[in-house]
Structures are given as structure tokens and as C-alpha cells.
Sequence to fold (305 residues):
Amino acid sequence: MIHRLASALRRTLRIAGQGMDGSRRATLWTLLVLVCAATAAAIGGVAARSIEIAAAATPPPAGASMVVYLTETASDDTARGLVTQLTGMAGVERAELVSSAETSKRLTRELGESLHDDLAANGLPVSIEVTLAPGVHDVIALSPALQALRTSAGVEDVVVAEADAAPGSPLRSLRVIAWFAAALFGGLALVIILATVRVRLERGRQERQVAELLGAHPGFFAIPTALAGALGAALAGGIAAALVYAGITTWGDAIAPVLGNVELAMPAPAEIAMFVGALGLLGLVGGALAGVAGSAHAPRGIARA
Fold:
């Protein structure tokens, strides 16, 4: 048993180092192709994850606002009744009564003492500030409830203001594009790795035929080629992870403005291990397919004879 395992390990190392045809140059080119595919997939994943983190940290888009200005003769009971009425309206998130004194403080902060004194001389109105839910600005502007509110007792005027664009809205749009691109790069990398490993390790059919003529089991080829494929793909994944890590460390600050001032998220050790393991699994599948495909062409009938 130990002898068989040692023999399989030796064949695995020979195939991984030289391929089925013994060409080290072709093996190096294969490794280069695997590294390029893995690096593209890693870059797409890092960019998408960084944009996702940045988008999650930005505040959600704010809804529109509405201000209800009350007449000078409006009583406190009328104002509180309007606040209750507005709070119960569909599409209203919050309604707050702003007194004349509070309005005065806000004007002082925003306009300064001189302009505030000029406005205060004409009297500052009591108002109700209403925060609307996102997406209801156009609906509530034409609703019968708003028209009835304008003619209510104690109401001087109603102004509906559209919300400013949220600072994180471009990131939310870019997030979808980034994940689509990451999925595209990942799919291409999967196909390239499987195809490259299988084509590279499927060569040397004559060697397989001779071995099976001597009674070798199909696992004699499938197991070493599968392990060699896993070893090569995992090595390519490790090199790709090191390249991406070095790239983020060296050029991360220069790349951030291209992504909308998004700070690139450094992959965690566990994520790097999962990435390398996933590539190793792909290489294992590709190598196993190469071993099975090559064995299928061997003349088993002659061996049985």
C-alpha cells in the first residue's frame, strides 16, 4: 500500500513538473495561463467586494420633504392636530412641529445675525416639517390629500421639495456592474482553468495505452493527473493572490479614484485560502477529466487478451 502511494506521488510530481509529454516549457506556459485567469478573477472579486463595502457604508437615499407653513392665527391645538393628521398620511415618515423660536435659531445658524434680524422683523412663521418616503414625491404632489391640506384652517402654504441625490447612489449603481463583471471574470476563469488543465494533462496517450496493455488500472492515470491538476491550479491561485495583494499594497491609493474614491478592501487570510482552495478543486476536476478521457482511448481489449 505504501509502495503504491509513493508511486502515485512520484507520478503526480512528474506530471505536475513536466506534464504528460515531458515538456517543462509547455508546463510553464500552462502555469502562466492559469495565473492570468486566476488574477483576473481575483481582481474582479476584490473590486466588487470593495464597492459593496463602500455602498453599504453610505446612507440610504433620502426621501423628499414637505413644509407646511401655518398662519399667524393658528392655535397650538390646530398645529398639533395637523401634525397628527400628517403623521397618519401614507408616504409620510415623520412630521415635526417647528416653532417660531426654533425657526429663528436655524436662520441664525444659516444666514447670520444681520439677515436674521431683517427677516425676524417681519415675523417668523410656525411650520411643520414633513419627511416623505423615497419615491412618493410625484405621487403626493398630485394627491387630493395635499390639495385638501392647502385649504385647511390655519394653513398658509404647503411646499413640497424634491430630495437631493444621495451621495451613495452612484456606488449602488456601480455595485451591480462590478458584481456582474466579477461573475463574468469568474466564469471565464473557470472555463479557462478546466480546459487548460484538461488539454495539458490529456496528452501522452501512447504512454497510457502501453500501461493499460500491461494491466494498469484506470486509476493509475486518473489519480495522478487529478492531483497534478489540483497542485498546478492551487499554485496559480497562490501566485495570483500574491500579485493582487502586492498590487493593492503598492497601487491601492492610485486605483481608488478610478473606482469613485472607493478604498480597496484587502482580502482576509481566510478568503485567500478559500480562493486558492477553489482553484485547486477546479484543477482537481480538470485533471480527473484528463485522466478519464485519456484512459477511454486505451485498447483495453488487447490487455484482456
The two ends are 27 Å apart (CA to CA). Residues 219-255 form the longest helix (37 residues).
